[in-house]
Each structure stands twice: as C-alpha cells, then as structure tokens.
Design a protein that fits this description.
The protein has helices spanning 10-18, 29-34, 48-61, 63-74, 78-88, 104-114, 128-139, 159-168, 176-180, 198-210, 232-240, 250-267, 272-285, 287-290, 292-305, 313-342, 353-363, and strands at 5-8, 23-25, 40-42, 94-98, 121-125, 147-153, 173-174, 215-219, 224-225, 228-229, 243-246, 347-351. By secondary structure, the chain is an alpha/beta fold. It folds into two domains: 5-136, 3-Layer(aba) Sandwich (Oxidized Rhodanese, domain 1); 141-363, Rossmann fold (3-Layer(aba) Sandwich).
C-alpha cells in the first residue's frame, strides 16, 4: 500500500470539505442524484446498472455472492476508475472519500487509490453519506439555527441583489434561492439550470449554516422555492423573524425584472425563443389564480413584446413593461400584501435597496 487511510467522523469530513480538500462520492449516479453534499464529486465505483445487478444477487444468494459479482463487474474498469479518482484530487495530498454508509464500496475504492503511485492520503468517512446527512439535518433543527433578519419587499424590489451586495460587505447571508437554483416565483426557473433534489437543497443550506455566525440575512420566501420546500424549522424561524423591507418604485421594479429575468438569460446564451416558451408556460401555470381574462391579455402583450430582440434594451423594455407591470400590480403585490397581513412581523428598517444596505452595514453586527 502507498499512503495511509484515516477514518474520520461526519463532522470532521464536512469541515475538511469546507476547507477545500477534494472529496469523492463513490455511490452510483442515481444515489448521488437523490441527494449529494456540496464539495463532493460523483465518481461511482458501481454504475446504476452494476449496482442493480449486485443488489439482485445479494437478495437472491447473499452477501458473499454479491461481493464476488461486484468484483467481477468492476475488475475491467478498475484501472480507469482509479485513475479518475486520482485525477479528481488535482494533485492535492489528501482526499475525502465516502459511499452510502462508509462500508465496502468506499473501503475498496480506498484500497485501489492507495495502490496508485500518486496516491493521496485518504480520509474515509465513517458512516458515509448517511452520517453526514444526519449531521446536516441536525443543523436545520430549531435550536441550532442562528438569529435571522429577513429581507422582504414586493417582487422586483431587488432583494436578491441586496443579498449579494450584503455578502460583498462581509455580512453573513443565507441564500436559499442560490441553493434551490430558482428565484422563488412562478417565473423563477433559472434558464439552463435544473433544480436539485430536496435532500441536496437541504444539504447545501445546512452546510452553509455550519459556518459559524450568530446572525444571518435571508430573503423572505414562501414555503416552496420552485420544486423544493424550505426546511420546517427554518421556515418557522423566518416567519417569526424581524424584517428589513425594500421599497422601490414600480418603474425601478419593472427594469429590475426585465434585467434579471429577460436580459440576463440572453447574455448567458439562452435563446429568445426558448425564453418566450418558458415565460408562456409560467404564465399558464398561474392562470387559475390570475384569471382567464388577465392571463390572455398578458399573453398577447408578452408575445408581442418578444417580437423585439431583447438585446435592444430600450425598445424591448418598453414593449415588455405592460405585462410585467400588470403581473406586479395585479398578482404579486396582492399576494405580498395578503402574506404581510397573515404573517405580521416586526420591521427593523424600511427603504430603498441602497438605503437598506447602508442601514445593514451600520447595524448588522451590533
């Protein structure tokens, strides 16, 4: 054997990942898709199909027969998979390694890695992904959550931008929309991005909370952020936490919606036709709540506006403004007002995004 193997507990593993040590998850692609932890890359020792065959053999003939089948299936790929693991460490002298429970798969992977001439020191996670997931879920329980200040305000007020600027000022932030890969509204799908599984969203959120901070800024969210839901204790705490409310004019909000939802995806390489189809689909998803007449009117305005190239910002913004403002005033503002009445909370400060940021810089750490 080359380098040594060291078994580490789940919290130590999570700490090492946050410090930037390369981390490899040797579970199958399907398992990784069901739930993963930031920092880990998926390099399976068994593919989904191989794992299925081994599982069936285990059920039919027991553990020893399943192990023999696994060895037979992986042997032709041993060299290439080991090389993939070595290359994934990018020359780092250490690597964190996990499977589902920290059992046979990570043990074998560790053995293969340590026979390589360029083997790093292997930290194998006791209890595997399951143990790390358990520690992360504990962090999302009520008693373990930090104090929260909630950034609230009407749709289009620039709350996400304010969070980014607050982060740039070294204020502690919890960015749920970033972890969910979604902007949180009916039109919130990020073009070209697929939302994570619920478990992965929770893992991302909890891992950020492991970084110590007595207080964090978080954007006001409903129960769901797209297809994922905010963890129960976190949502309850948000609903009881004080607000910093962003107030911007309808004109400013319209421009910000245009820039973030329409202009930005085009600059990122998303086609205008695909963006139009996505927006029509999003509009149809709220038809029952918006009403048929308003939906049909907004759809006509939307289709007409999309005849102007979005790169022509002045003309395009003017064309898109009617349907954007209609949805803001007739749909989102009404929902925000209803929610404000249903969940009355203490307001710490209220102002434009610029004024809110200045206030936060002065008061957040006090």
């Amino acid at each position: 054997m080359g380098q040594e193997e060291v078994k580490i507990d789940a919290l130590t593993a999570l700490s090492k990942i946050q410090s930037g040590i390369p981390a490899i998850d040797v579970r199958s692609q399907g398992e990784f898709g069901d739930g993963s932890i930031p920092g880990f890359i998926s390099l399976p020792i068994l593919t989904d199909e191989e794992r299925h065959q081994v599982g069936k053999r285990y059920k039919d003939a027991g553990q020893e027969a399943a192990i023999r089948l696994g060895e037979r299936l992986t042997e032709p790929h041993r060299a290439s998979r080991t090389l993939d693991w070595i290359q994934a460490t990018k020359g780092h002298p250490e690597v964190v390694l996990t499977c589902w429970r920290g059992g046979l798969r990570s043990q074998i992977a560790s053995e293969w890695i340590r026979t390589h001439v360029e083997a790093p020191k292997v930290f194998r996670v006791s209890g595997g992904y399951k143990a790390m997931r358990g520690e992360l879920l504990k962090k999302l329980e009520g008693a373990n959550l930090p104090e929260l200040w909630v950034i609230s305000g009407n749709t289009g007020s620039g709350k996400s931008r304010l969070l980014e600027k607050a982060l740039g000022e070294n204020l502690a932030v919890l960015d749920l929309e970033k972890h969910a890969q979604h902007r949180g509204s009916a039109f919130g799908n990020l073009p070209g991005h697929r939302q994570p599984s619920q478990a992965t969203f929770e893992n991302r959120t909890a891992l950020e909370l492991l970084q110590p901070s007595p207080r964090r800024l978080v954007e006001d969210e409903s129960t769901c952020v797209g297809s994922v839901h905010v963890p129960l204790y976190l949502k309850k705490k948000m609903d009881l936490s004080p607000l910093v409310i962003v107030r911007e004019s309808l004109e400013v909000r319209t421009r910000l919606i245009f820039e973030d939802y329409l202009e930005a995806p085009i600059h990122a390489g998303f086609s205008q036709d695909a963006l139009q189809a996505l927006f029509i689909q999003s509009l149809e998803s709220i038809r029952k709540r918006l009403g048929h007449e308003a939906t049909d009117r907004n759809k006509r305005q939307m289709l007409d506006a999309f005849t102007i190239p979005l790169v022509e910002k002045g003309r395009a913004l003017e064309k898109h403004a009617p349907w954007i403002q209609s949805l803001l005033v007739d749909y989102y503002d009404r929902r925000y007002e209803y929610d404000r009445i249903q969940r009355p909370r203490k307001t710490l400060f209220e102002g434009t995004a610029k004024e809110c940021l200045e206030w936060l810089k002065q008061h957040f750490h006090h």
